[in-house]
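Treating backbone geometry as a discrete language has practical consequences that deserve illustration. In the encoding step, the backbone of a single protein was reduced to a row of integers, each denoting a local shape. The amino acid sequence and the backbone structure tokens for this protein are reproduced below.
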Amino acid sequence: MRRRVLIALAAFFYYSGLVGFARWRTRRAQARLVILNYHRASGGNLRSHLDYLRRYYRILHVEAALEELYTPQKAHRRIVPRKTALVLTFDDGYCDNYTHGFALARELQTPMTIYLVPGYIDSGQRFWWFEGKRLVQSAQVPEATVEGITYHLQREEERVALANLIDNHVRYARSVAEREAFLVSMRALLAVSSSVIEEEQPELPLTWEQVAEMEQSGWVSFGAHTMHHPVLSYLTDAEERQRELSECRAYLERALGHDVKSFAYPIGQQQHIGNETVEAVRQAGYTWALTTSYGINTPETNMLSLYRVEVDVDQHWLVVAAATAGLWGIIARLRWLPAIRKRFTNSR
């Protein structure tokens, strides 16, 4: 129901002319940059998104777009302003960024930028945020005792509770070693094999061969996303935080054969970054760093705290059109109306 309401509202924005008006205002401002934040490329409507975006925006690689944004503008205004610059970014480097995203990039001649986690490319393992649900679903034991609580895995609510416990442990881990040790212990406890199941391939990371092919095409550029994707603000060792940033950049530069200037913070909201991390990013030698905080970038935007617009391939292109035009605030508020209404009712 909520999805239909969102699409209906986005359709109203679009066909009433509000989206077009918002695009026009942004275009008149000239020095503006919209950065979209995707993760997966398959299982949705990416082609329809790109068809719309190519029509109304100038799609650039992140490096070219940021160089343009921070280059001093000429004093005179153009009589006909150019389309607003836009960047397509994909975080984490899923396999389907190659099988689906890259295929579309070549076909439609649309630049994209992918933020890579070299440790996962090397290991070929699933990203940690899939492990809670996967381990519980793949458990070969009827019950498991964790932290003094026994979970009976034939009961749905207890499977969900155990999956949530695993998710919380790995998300809030104070080091990568702690996270990985916990996952090893849970695999052993639940008797889960580490072998890859064929239908899970889209959730796996890219390979270096795929990265090389995309790099050589000229349609895909790459940035850094830490070495092992910890939540940086949760790391207790400042030296480990610095290594995650510096080693990732050095590793990618060796693999790609050129400088890597841009970085995307894992998860990317302020509570996942922290003030110390921004300085660590600067010390690691990055020129630009992308958050997931919503906004459109201007020449005044902090180069190490750039804004993005979070989107997903399963969204209707009308929703993406409204969000990209700067109308996301209204849509976001609508998404939370049911929760707000419930809280208000309960407080009365």
